[in-house]
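Entry:
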Amino acid sequence: MTEIQIDQLRKIANKLFDHIENDLGIEKFVLDKNFYWDMDSKQLYDVETTPTLNMGSLYDDWEFVSSLLEKDSAPVSLSLTELAPLLRYLGEKIGQ
């Protein structure tokens, strides 16, 4: 088992975003794809079982997480599950 400090994860994410903005000069990106394959979290970490695929939506994920920009919006840690596909898409898109 590995223990990860939230502060370390935050520093890593900030360093990656600084690299994207400052070194690569990328300040925004376009979601030119919407749907992706996803699976239930119980199946995701159970490598002994063949998973059932579900369809996710980057547009929906963005709608959910962007609501956190509203002044009265309260964050919920589960929203990280909507942020994760967007981060993966960004990494794959600019990493080409």
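The helical segments are 6-23, 41-44, 58-66, 80-94.
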